[in-house]
Amino acid sequence: MRRTYRNILLAGLTLALSMTALWTCAGGGGSSSGGQGGGSTEGVTCSNGQITVWGEAPIFTSIASARDKAKEDACRKAVEKCLGEEVASVTGVSDGQSIANELFTQARGICKNDQIVDEQQYDLDTVKMLKIFVRFQVSQSDIRNSINTMRELVGNPKVMVLIREEYDLPPKRVEGFASRNSVSASLLRESLVSKGYTVLDASSVARAISNEEYFAENPAALTDEIKDAAARAGADVLIIGRIQVSPQNISALRGSDFKSYRAQGNVQIQTLWGYGKLLGEFTGTEPGAQVEALAAARAAVQKLVAGRDSGRAGGLADFVHKRLSDEWAMITRNNQIKMTIVGLDQAEAGVFKDNLIEAASVKKVDEISFSPQQAVWDVYYPGRSFALSDTLGFYGENPAMFSVLKMNCKRLEVLGVDRGEIRLRFSSGRSCN
């Protein structure tokens, strides 16, 4: 099986726990202003939980507010370089800094006890910039927790299970999406948890679905509202579908007291990451026999989900694990995000494309459409849309990070973000003096 992020990041966790060796984090990157302010990120080191790094911010209102912004910028660089790049160097994951961007959106308190070692001002065209050299203290437990968080973010996805069981029994029986008596959902959750997946409680999302029977039968018709609700609950992947259980011909067992039932399932694996993608569709049929009808029906469901006792590969749980392990790393490293932008002319749009790749860890930008009113792009980013939007929002007035902001003195605003789209606006009016 192909090596996953989760496995290779174990090496990073071991390293973080030791914290006895000098960590030398690669320089370069970070701010695009480089040495304009007299400093650089060359030689950034992380030793025994101590991190020293440059941060910068434009001075628009006061030195104090710019200093606070520069401290947060320095913390971002510290996380990217001293954690992200270290994980990358140890494990071979080329997107260590992007992984650290994901971490930063979830663990902003990692940089503590800041001490400003040096402070400078410089002019970036017509914008006055503040650049500071900051020393942070990061405890061993903080780093351990951060590496754990990284491992979770880029490892196995968080899964939500919505399976409806319909039993053709006397009387008929239904275990809905939110049922605690569902055999299939329980077995699938147990199997995934045993393989290292995080399985989320689906009850709140299930209760919000008014037409459960329809979506269980037609999972491809699932609405964006339901998908968004599952994503807001933290899910990366949704497993949704229906299992029907009905009596079958038991002529071979005629004269005995056994009841025989057949479980037939149709279940989809849908990603909630980016645009969303159908990872796989499971269809199968399994028999079950027991003395009581309900026990026979549940035995059939158990075989359908967990596979046969013979040990042959099969079953819904095995199918889900194989599809996720085969596809997930590829998807997360090439998350396709729709980016809708207003307020840029064609020349500015070209500069901003370069800025996304050079300063925001974006891998590729494909233009879908462009008009004087709006540009629509497909952006490929190794992380969640929320992490990218967080970076864009934070640097929305920093021309050292995004050189497009120097053109016509514009500012960048994040109008909205969800699991597959970021909406941006460039507006004029920011003072460049």
- Rg calc: 26 Å
The biggest beta sheet, please?
Answer: 6 strands, mixed
Poorly predicted residue ranges: 1-43
Count the E strands: 16
Query: H/E order of the elements?
Result: HHEEEHHEEHEEHEHHHEEEHHEHEEHEE
Helix/strand-derived category reads alpha+beta
N-to-C CA distance:
58 Å
Multimeric status of the protein:
single chain
Share of helix, binned? 25-40%
Q: What would you say this structure looks like, in words?
A:
With 433 residues, the protein is an alpha+beta fold. Helices cover 36% and strands 29% of the residues. It is built from 13 helices and 16 strands. The chain has helices at residues 5-8, 10-18, 63-91, 96-106, 140-154, 183-194, 203-207, 212-217, 224-232, 293-306, 316-333, 346-359, 385-394; strands at residues 23-24, 45-47, 50-58, 112-124, 127-137, 158-167, 173-175, 198-200, 237-247, 259-271, 278-290, 335-342, 364-370, 375-381, 411-417, 421-427. Strands 6, 7, 8, 9, 10 and 11 form a 6-stranded mixed sheet that branches. A 5-stranded antiparallel sheet has the order 1-2-3-5-4. Strand 6 (158-167) and strand 7 (173-175) form a beta hairpin. Helix 4 packs across helix 13 (385-394). The longest helix has 29 residues, at 63-91. The chain is elongated.
